[in-house]
Design goal:
3-stranded antiparallel sheet; 180 residues; mainly beta
Length: 180
């Protein structure tokens, strides 16, 4: 799915304008997991403000997992799970994840592929395809285009049992665990 990232801002007189210089999002197409694509679309700091000038914050992001109060806006395309069966060099996959998914790669569980937990509240919408959201003890829910998920810092994994790619859009909000 092709898309463009439109950024707005204000000119020197305060008039709302489109900023055409920031249209290309940071996208990582994975070599060792063909079809896995992650686009980081935007991020905000802990104390987000409406800026006088807009600079792309994505190049300075050092972790895909936002700290409390920060946000990350990402688009992820998952290849069919069947494509994972042809992977023979899992060490190379791990190295690629570490370099292209900083902060998130460390959250993946070595003994439970795909399972991870982040200290975030995530707003997720399935844009295309079909996915299964797996939680603890193997409990799963089927998701299709248009479905939304509010992920509250729970242990989970995304499974694509179909023959086609599936794409989600997610806003991750850094949080702290309370009441535990």
């Amino acid at each position: 799915m092709e898309f463009q990232r439109i950024i707005t801002g204000n000119d020197t007189s305060g008039k709302a304008v489109f900023l055409d210089t920031l249209v290309t999002p940071q996208t990582s197409a994975f070599v060792h997991v063909p079809g896995f694509i992650v686009s980081t679309l935007w991020s905000t700091s802990e104390k987000a403000t409406i800026p006088h000038t807009v600079n792309d914050p994505v190049p300075s992001v050092t972790s895909l997992v936002p700290a409390p109060g920060e946000t990350r806006f990402v688009k992820v395309t998952f290849p069919p799970d069947s494509s994972l069966e042809s992977i023979t060099n899992w060490e190379a996959v791990g190295v690629e994840y570490s370099s292209k998914l900083p902060g998130l790669a460390e959250k993946f569980e070595a003994d439970s592929p795909g399972m991870h937990t982040t200290p975030t509240v995530d707003y997720i919408i399935v844009l295309s395809g079909e996915l299964w959201l797996e939680l603890d003890a193997g409990e799963q829910r089927y998701l299709k285009a248009g479905d939304v998920v509010v992920q509250n810092g729970t242990r989970h994994a995304w499974r694509n049992r179909s023959a086609n790619p599936a794409t989600i859009l997610s806003v991750m909000i850094g949080a702290t665990y309370g009441g535990r």
